Structure formats: C-alpha cells, structure tokens
Amino acid sequence: MGEEEAKAAEETQKGDAAATQEEDGKATGQPAKFAPLPEGDSTGKKVENLDLILDVSTKVTVELGRTQMLIKDVLNMNIGSVIEINKLAGEPVDILVNDKLIAKGEVVVINENFGVRVTEILGAEQRIKKLGSKDQE
C-alpha cells in the first residue's frame, strides 16, 4: 500500500469514527471518502480494456429506406406488391446498431446472398446531427 493510499485509509477510518458518535442522542453521518482509483495498470500506462464488453450482443440493422402507408394500402398488399421507399436506387443504405445510425454502406451480392459493404463510418458529430434531424421528422 502506497503512502497516499494509507493516508486515504486513515481519513476513511476517522470519518467512520466521527459518523458513529452521537450528538444529542442522534447519530450523525458523513459521506464516505475513498482513495482515488488508479488510471493505469501497475506500470502507470493507461489501460482501455474493451475485453470486458467484446461478447456483448447487439442488434445490427441495415435499412434500405422508410415509408408511411395507410392501413387500407397495407391490407391490399399481395405477393409481388411494390412498396415505394424514400431512397433512390443505388443510394447508400443505413447501418444501425441498437437503432442508432453508425455507418452507411452499399448492397452487394456474394454467392447469391445479399450483404452490405461498409463505405462510411459516421463520426460522433455526424451521428449527433442525424439524431437531431430524426427528431424533427
């Protein structure tokens, strides 16, 4: 234990003792004081440990476009019906992670399966602008 940690531990013990003292028959309390957590590993290097969240599951959605339809139009749909969306053919598709736009891409066909090639990853500023524009729609 380093000197700073020892001093912090002493202050915490003093605070605990003061908190248990009674004043006029009523217990008084003070907020707990803790030693600051180190920002790096034992060598002092700052550690960004993404390993803790690498196996967290997320929902990835590729959105071709959106539209609004009347219920009567939805009920009249048959096999082969065409739904017009708000994007042009060849326009980039939106890639969303947990319903948040994070990238744009283009649709590709690989071995008769559809896929999406990522063409642009949005920066934080662009994502914030998109959030503001979606609220106004």
Number of separate structural domains: 2
Question: Which class do the helix and strand fractions yield?
Answer: alpha+beta
The helix-strand sequence is HEEEHEEEH
CATH class of the largest domain: Mainly Beta
Number of strands: 6
Supply Rg. 28 Å
Q: Could you name the CATH homologous superfamily of the largest domain?
A: SpoA-like
Strand order of the largest sheet: 3-4-5-6
Average pLDDT for all residues: 78
User: What overall form do the CA principal axes indicate?
Assistant: elongated
Sheet with most strands: 4 strands, antiparallel
Task: Fill in the CATH topology of the largest domain.
Answer: Surface presentation of antigens (SPOA)
Q: How much strand? A: 15-25%
Specify the oligomeric state: single chain
Polypeptide structure, described:
The structure is a single chain. The protein is of the alpha+beta class and 137 residues long. The chain folds into two domains: 1-50, no CATH class; 57-136, Surface presentation of antigens (SPOA) (Roll), CATH 2.30.330. Helices cover 26% and strands 24% of the residues. Strands 3-4-5-6 form a four-stranded antiparallel beta sheet. Strands 1-2 form a two-stranded antiparallel sheet. It is elongated, with a radius of gyration of 28 Å.
